[in-house]
Backbone:
């Protein structure tokens, strides 16, 4: 384990960004990923450990002008207990309900889940389907700056993102989906929560009668990062979820995923699951 | 070795001050530095719940929490929970309902169960099952644990 | 306490140790402090199979805080351990698996010990690796152990009748190969030990062992000291399930370090180490050939198994003792032949695990009961009832079923689960459009319920003291491992002495105090230690009543003990404490202290494996209802209906707990647990990917007790510890068939494996293959 030479607890976003600018910082939020990763040697501590829990700008769930801003420090439990999330971002709420265990939901933060960038990260898949974006803060030239990256551009590989070491994930912004937008999150496994999904699927769409509009499909654990499936979406757009359309969407999706074999599932099985469960999830959404 | 940090927090109602290495887990601090051995190590990765404690009224896996992060917060371990009114009710219910076998998972379950009862009074069996999904038990098959938590709830009502 | 004659038997008695455990007060081995103790860590091999060329410990020894770094060279007096004495605690010139112990460190802290491990350099010269039993048995395969040509560690052969004749008489003959997978115990408390020598060289060992008296002898031989100079204290154990029946390398290693440093040494595993280096239930490939006549009469059974022994031999190799009993005697089969070869590979080695081979044997036998019944067009229940054992039967293997509630178990479980009607209804839905299917399956088991005489003695000793205040101290050789034995033993003593439970303390964890017991295994403690406790209590009672009769001048037959009094007929004669003090402080002072040793009337099997090895046998039938999602392969266990012949219920709360816990453990074996070993490497040494059943997955459980009142059992009871885990996988397999029409011959029924079976995937799974 590399030595932590300094432990710091900034009280503002400015201060946090200043510390990051100086470099060699490990960011600590909920700790639920950082502790086992450092313990197992998968992640090495930098010389500065920065606990961001006291940064007020990283908290809160608010809606302004059609955009829901979720502070990076918001825990999964806070999301799960938020009426706004439950009512307007229900597909995200479902993922939070299926997230690990109570103890972990109480500690784990949305920002941590996003920065950890696991291909199987539970919240990432619905956030992709909700067309969320990351808000990154930094202080390159003496003043606080932010930039936004759409989530579907944010992940660059397993555990890797476009966030620079000098940047702090401040929040996730989710544009409110249109009225009538419904969604479903599916996580494959035998347990409701405490499971790393072999695959996960989020599907959202606006229903006009039985016709699907604004279709958004995202997958977890079938590629190096969580992904959107634009070709499958295009197949469904403006259509009813009849058997032929479902099959066509599933076939399109199979062309968009790149699953691997690991201890949790083979690539073959992941493909079978995507085909079978995408159809099931879409037909559920079509009936909501 | 990591830098030491001075922290101050409330543990089972008592103010504590100590200096801990920045990389230390709260579980290790509780067991090795403060001698509170009721909180158990069984996986060290947040997968089993044996080390569950309450922090500011919410349960966490203490193996995943950095000890430095305890600064300014209020902790309760099984020792503290057992001394509370809810804890006494739960203890009696765990005993009377046969929810304890080898007992190694029991402290974590006691803390988690107290949280389920306090946070969601009147939770039904399904909610209790979800409430303790992060606590592994190898002996009981969970049935008697769930019955015990329900019994403790009912005594409240 | 109630009126005279009131009884604790069959009541719901809370465990005596539960209040402390539920308060976080119980001190497990992990929680004990030995003043001045050093912390030990083990360096394990990084090669699956290799020659050790050299080990350099110099840098590790120089690390501040390190007190000792040892390798085999430092303990030339170490001796081979394990069931077959085929490995040294610290390996000398060769490692045969990734868990192998190469060096060990004792340091001031665990962190320093871990740092020191990183400084030890080992040069290996890799040797060819045997990843499967097929590879190990192949001609020309490298030999893993001297004296074991073809890498066969042990073989077992049993025969009764003439299987050729049986086959000739058969109208139906079927043959299948079943594949069982690796699982491990996952005790919540990880392995640990504290060793300490006094200046005179006597060893004090804090140990989680289930067999303290056997271990004393092994350690004494290894240390070259008198066994009388070894004291083993067992702190409360965080789960056993058979995992603590053998001597494992970490225990002698801690002892070596303690001896070399002259300091107490504490050694605890991490969870990862627990997955890598504690025992397993081994993979088995089992070929079963069975037949029956048109009328459903079983004719013969032939079983051939290959056990993956792993790199060394522990109790796992000897599970055929139990497996052959299920093959020969669960149902009446006139002709049987059984063969096992336990084969060395470079895999993790196999220990004993709750059920002891019986899960594997029952899985195969009960699948064939379903298939044979279907082949002759008989109802699954009727077919089983036709062949089920009955009370009084002596099987060709020599097992004598003095009590046998098998048929009641079958009919009770079937009725309470509505088995026959649901079977038919589920089959009728095989072809309907809904991809989610329902199924129900049934399976039964036979297991030792009155000890198992695998050592020359299967006994247990008791010392019982009734003090001046009528408080009883029950000192028993039988350890408590969470199963509730101390509570049941206290109950049995109270029953004899007419005392409340609060009047009894149990001492069961210190070999300097407790009398001999063979150990906690084979579901034997309630039966054997129970009879022993009753024996000691009866002697105490006789002594008290004789003295009371003499004092009161009444015939002893008129006296009894109840509610803390000596009764004469229905009248309180003496308050017991006062009477005992009178006995003590009299001219002819006397204390009431008794001893008893119970040896069950069972027999060692002969060389042909025939003989009545247990004083009683337990029976059970379990019906499992499942939901199978054919689009994902996910199998959900909805309900288990179990009927258990337990002889008699002693503690209803405790026995329910044993059965519920066993059912869920058996469910985990069938559905979720899978120790993935690929190229001899454990791929999932954590609870994230080794999946124990969690609370939301728990099925509904309906348990019925069949009370056959065994004549030899304590108050009529038989052993139950292992029984509930045994037939779950078999019943679930039968349920999946009933749901889908697909029979799956390989465990576990994890979603991908089930999906592959249902959809006939040609491609073999890349991961998680059984055997």
Residues:
């Amino acid at each position: 384990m590399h030595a932590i030479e300094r432990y710091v607890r900034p009280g503002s976003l400015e201060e946090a960004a200043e510390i990051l600018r100086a470099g060699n910082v490990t960011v600590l939020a909920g700790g639920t990923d950082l502790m086992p990763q450092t313990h197992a040697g998968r992640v090495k501590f930098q010389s500065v450990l920065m606990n961001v829990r006291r940064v007020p700008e990283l908290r809160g769930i608010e809606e302004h002008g059609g955009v829901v801003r979720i502070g990076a420090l918001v825990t999964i439990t806070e999301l799960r207990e938020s009426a706004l999330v439950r009512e307007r971002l229900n597909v995200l709420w479902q993922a939070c309900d299926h997230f690990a265990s109570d103890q972990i939901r109480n500690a784990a933060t949305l920002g941590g889940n996003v920065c950890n960038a696991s291909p199987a990260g539970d919240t990432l898949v619905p956030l992709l389907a909700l067309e969320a974006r990351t808000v990154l803060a930094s202080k390159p030239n003496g003043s606080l700056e932010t930039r936004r990256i759409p989530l579907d551009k944010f992940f660059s590989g397993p555990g890797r993102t476009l966030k620079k070491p000098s940047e702090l994930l401040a929040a996730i912004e989710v544009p409110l989906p249109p009225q009538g937008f419904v969604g479903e999150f599916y996580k494959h496994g035998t347990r409701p929560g405490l499971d790393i999904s072999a695959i996960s699927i989020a599907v959202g769409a606006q229903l006009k009668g039985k016709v699907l509009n604004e279709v958004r499909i995202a997958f977890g654990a079938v590629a190096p990062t969580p992904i959107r499936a634009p070709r499958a979406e295009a197949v469904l757009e403006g259509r009813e979820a009849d058997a032929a359309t479902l099959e066509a969407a599933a076939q399109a999706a199979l062309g968009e995923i790149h699953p691997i074999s690991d201890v949790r599932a083979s690539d073959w099985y992941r493909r079978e699951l995507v085909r079978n469960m995408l159809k099931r999830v879409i037909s559920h959404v079509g009936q909501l | 070795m990591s830098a030491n940090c001075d922290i101050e927090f409330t543990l089972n109602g008592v103010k504590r001050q100590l200096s801990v290495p920045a990389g230390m887990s709260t579980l290790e601090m509780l067991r090795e530095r403060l001698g509170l051995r009721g909180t158990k190590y069984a996986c060290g990765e947040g997968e089993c719940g044996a080390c569950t404690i309450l922090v500011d009224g919410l349960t966490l896996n203490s193996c995943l929490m950095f000890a430095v992060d305890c600064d300014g917060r209020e902790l309760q371990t099984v020792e503290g929970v057992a001394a509370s009114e809810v804890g006494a009710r739960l203890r009696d219910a765990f005993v009377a309902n046969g929810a304890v076998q080898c007992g190694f998972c029991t402290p974590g379950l006691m803390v988690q169960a107290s949280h389920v009862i306090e946070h969601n009074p009147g939770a039904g069996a399904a909610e209790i099952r979800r409430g303790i999904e992060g606590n592994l038990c190898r002996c009981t098959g969970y049935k008697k644990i769930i019955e015990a938590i329900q019994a403790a709830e009912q005594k409240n009502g | 306490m109630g009126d005279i004659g009131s009884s604790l038997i069959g009541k719901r008695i809370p465990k005596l140790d539960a209040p402390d455990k539920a308060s976080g007060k119980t001190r497990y081995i992990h929680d004990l402090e030995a003043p001045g103790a050093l912390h030990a860590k083990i360096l394990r091999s990084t090669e699956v199979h290799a020659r050790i060329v050299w080990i350099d410990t110099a840098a590790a020894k120089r690390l501040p805080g390190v007190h000792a770094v040892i390798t085999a060279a430092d303990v030339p007096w170490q001796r081979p351990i394990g069931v077959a004495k085929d490995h040294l605690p610290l390996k000398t010139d060769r490692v045969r698996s990734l868990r192998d112990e190469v060096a060990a460190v004792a340091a001031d802290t665990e962190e320093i010990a871990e740092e020191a491990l990183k400084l030890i350099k080992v040069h290996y010269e890799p040797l060819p690796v045997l990843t499967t039993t097929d590879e190990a048995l192949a001609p020309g395969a490298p030999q893993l152990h001297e004296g074991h040509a073809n890498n066969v560690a042990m073989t077992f052969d049993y025969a009764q009748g003439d299987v050729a004749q049986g086959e000739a008489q058969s109208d139906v003959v079927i043959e299948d190969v079943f594949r069982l997978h690796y699982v491990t115990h996952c005790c919540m408390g990880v392995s640990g030990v504290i060793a300490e020598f006094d200046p005179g060289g006597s060893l004090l060992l804090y140990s989680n062992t289930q067999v303290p008296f056997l271990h004393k002898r092994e350690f004494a031989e290894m240390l070259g000291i008198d066994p009388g100079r070894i004291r083993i204290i067992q702190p409360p154990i965080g789960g056993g399930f058979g995992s603590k029946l053998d001597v494992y390398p970490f225990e002698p290693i801690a002892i070596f370090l303690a001896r070399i440093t002259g300091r107490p040494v504490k050694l605890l595993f991490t969870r990862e180490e627990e997955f890598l280096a504690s025992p397993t239930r081994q993979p088995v490939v089992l070929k079963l050939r069975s037949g029956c006549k048109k009328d459903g009469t079983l004719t013969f059974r032939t079983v051939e198994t290959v056990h993956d022994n792993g790199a060394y031999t522990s109790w796992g190799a000897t599970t055929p003792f139990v497996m052959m009993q299920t093959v020969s005697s669960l149902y009446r089969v006139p002709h049987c032949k059984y063969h096992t070869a336990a084969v060395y590979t470079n895999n993790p080695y196999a220990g004993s695990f709750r059920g002891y081979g019986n899960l594997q044997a029952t899985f195969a036998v009960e699948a064939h009961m379903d298939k044979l019944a279907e082949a002759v067009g008989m109802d699954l229940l009727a077919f089983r009832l036709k062949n089920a054992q009955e009370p009084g039967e002596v099987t060709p293997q020599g097992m004598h079923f003095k009590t046998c509630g098998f048929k009641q178990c079958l009919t009770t479980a079937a009725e309470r689960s509505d088995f026959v009607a649901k079977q038919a209804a589920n089959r009728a839905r095989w072809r309907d459009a809904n991809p989610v299917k329902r199924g129900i399956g049934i399976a039964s088991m036979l297991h030792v319920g009155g000890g198992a005489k695998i050592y020359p003695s299967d006994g247990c000793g008791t010392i019982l003291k009734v003090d001046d205040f009528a408080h009883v101290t029950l000192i028993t050789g039988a350890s408590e491992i969470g199963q509730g034995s101390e509570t049941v033993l206290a109950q049995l003593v109270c029953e004899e002495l007419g005392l409340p439970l609060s009047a009894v303390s149990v001492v069961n964890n210190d070999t300097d105090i407790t009398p001999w017991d063979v150990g906690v295994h084979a579901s034997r403690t309630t039966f054997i230690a129970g009879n022993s406790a009753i024996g000691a209590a009866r002697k105490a009672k006789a002594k008290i009543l004789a003295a009371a009769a003499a004092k009161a001048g009444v015939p002893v037959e008129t006296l009894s003990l109840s509610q803390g009094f000596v009764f004469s007929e229905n009248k309180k004669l003496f308050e017991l404490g006062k009477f005992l003090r009178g006995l003590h402080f009299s001219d002819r002072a006397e204390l009431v202290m008794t001893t008893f040793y119970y040896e069950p009337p069972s027999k060692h099997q002969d060389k042909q494996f025939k003989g009545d090895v247990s004083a009683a046998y337990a029976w059970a039938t379990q019906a499992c209802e499942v939901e199978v999602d054919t689009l994902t392969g996910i199998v959900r266990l909805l309900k288990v209906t179990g009927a258990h012949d337990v002889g008699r219920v002693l503690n209803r709360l405790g026995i329910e707990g044993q059965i519920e816990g066993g059912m869920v453990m058996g469910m985990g074996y069938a559905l979720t647990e899978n120790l993935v070993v690929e190229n001899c490497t454990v791929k999932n040494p954590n609870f994230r990917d080794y999946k124990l059943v969690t609370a939301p997955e728990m099925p509904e459980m309906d348990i019925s007790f069949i009370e056959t009142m065994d004549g030899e059992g304590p108050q009529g009871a038989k052993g139950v510890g292992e029984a509930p885990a045994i037939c779950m996988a078999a019943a679930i397999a039968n349920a999946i068939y009933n749901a889908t029409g697909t029979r799956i011959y390989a465990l576990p029924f994890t979603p991908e494996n089930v999906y592959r079976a249902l959809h006939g995937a040609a491609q073999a799974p890349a991961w998680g293959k059984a055997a």
